[in-house]
Amino acid sequence: MGDALPQGPRPRPAAVFNGNVAEAAWESFTLTMRSPVLLKRIEAFSRNAPGTGALMTFKDSPWLMSIVVPRPPHFDGQPEDVFTLWGYGLFIDTPGEHTGKAMAESTGREVLDELVGQLGFGDIADEVRATTTVTTVTMPYITSQFARRDVSDRPLVIPHGARNFVFPGQSWRSLRTWCSPSSTRYAAPCTPSTGCSASTGPSRRCTTPCSIRRRRSRP
Fold first, then answer.
1. Per-residue model confidence (pLDDT) at position 90
2. What percent of the chain is modeled with pLDDT above 70?
3. Residue 44 and residue 38: Cα distance in Å, rounded?
4. C-alpha angle with apex 99: 138 to 139, nearest 5 degrees?
5. What is the DSSP code string of 65-99?
6. Cis (ω within 30 of 0) for the bond into 11?
7. Is 75 exposed, middle or buried (0-12, 13-18, 19+ CB in 10 A)?
8. In the sheet that 178-180 helps form, which strands lie side by side, from edge to edge?
9. How far apart are CA 141 and CA 90, in angstroms?
10. pTM above 0.90, yes or no
């Protein structure tokens, strides 16, 4: 739809956002556990009861895995003796440290093995495998809204000439501006006065102007 709008000096190519799956894809996984052994070990390790802690990221994981443990019951009708957690990996084409396989090529059992290995819980691995079902989902465009882009690649929320409609959502351009690092896949905020904010570091570059001072809508 964005490509069809007669807006700006040139068309906005959809390929900017859907043409590079390697930069935009994640893989998520959900554990259905019929034993509390893994949950109790994570609680002792993190010192957080389920539902009270933040996202746990394994910064040295080749897949850059993260997990979050919700307070049970998380699902309607969830039995008292069934537990769950959700997680994801960002670098799904990198070989795992404990499986030696890319996350995108791994079975649910192998994703579980990598998680247990990252946690250092090898002593309970057999029981966890025997009592856990793993559901994996690959999301090829989940971070496409953060793709490196030109300022005109994302259509305006209010297209030129529009009088009675808008396009809210992540696929449209608000007046908030961003810097995108030249060497990484994620964008970072710009500051209007100086361009890239200090936190982005000297090696990053702005791909959108940072001089817009009008009231900004939320993206």
1. 94
2. 68
3. 10
4. 5
5. EEEE-PPSP-STT--TT-EEEEEEES-TTSBPTTT
6. no
7. exposed
8. 195-196, 188-191, 178-180, 205-206
9. 12
10. no
